[in-house]
Structure formats: C-alpha cells, structure tokens
TrEMBL record:
It comes from Champsocephalus esox (pike icefish). Belongs to the cytochrome c oxidase VIIa family. This is Cytochrome c oxidase subunit 7A2, mitochondrial. Pathway: Energy metabolism; oxidative phosphorylation. InterPro entries: COX7a (IPR039297), Cyt_c_oxidase_su7a_sf (IPR036539), Cytc_oxidase_su7a_met (IPR003177).
C-alpha cells in the first residue's frame, strides 16, 4: 500500500513539473490604449461591435419590459366587466 502511494506521489510530481507551460499574451496594454483614447465614444461602447450589440439588446429589452409593465398595470386597474 505504501509503495503504491509513493509511486502515485512520484508520478504526480513528474507530470506537474514536466508539463508544458503555455504563455498567454498579456493584452492589458492594448486594452488600456483602446479604452483611454479620446474618440468621443462612451466607455460602454469602446469595446467594439460586441459591446454595441449587447448595449442595444439591453436597451430593447428594457423598453419592452417597461411597456409590458405599463400594459399589465393598465389591465389590472381596468378589470373586464362581466
């Protein structure tokens, strides 16, 4: 039993230390330049097309939700006559 644990410990140490390390590119500097440049865009739209689509979808959902709330309040305030 002890041999198996020792072998497992040795195997795990080998795979962890000998595994290939991947270097991720550090894109912080590019993002800082993108968000700090003065191009007249609000900060929530400086990310590009993806940010613009998310913003428009959120605004449409907000307008639709507000309209639906007003509709439901109106139907609750004016019950149908039997």
């Amino acid at each position: 039993m002890y041999r198996q644990l020792l072998g497992l410990r040795l195997l795990s140490r080998r795979t962890i230390t000998s595994s290939a390390r991947r270097q991720a590119d550090n894109g912080v500097k590019e993002k800082q330049k993108l968000f700090q440049e003065d191009n007249g865009l609000p900060i929530h739209l400086k990310g590009g097309v993806k940010d613009a689509l998310i913003y428009r979808f959120t605004m449409a959902l907000t307008v639709f939700g507000s309209g639906y709330v007003v509709y439901e309040l109106f139907t609750a305030a004016m019950p149908k006559k039997a």
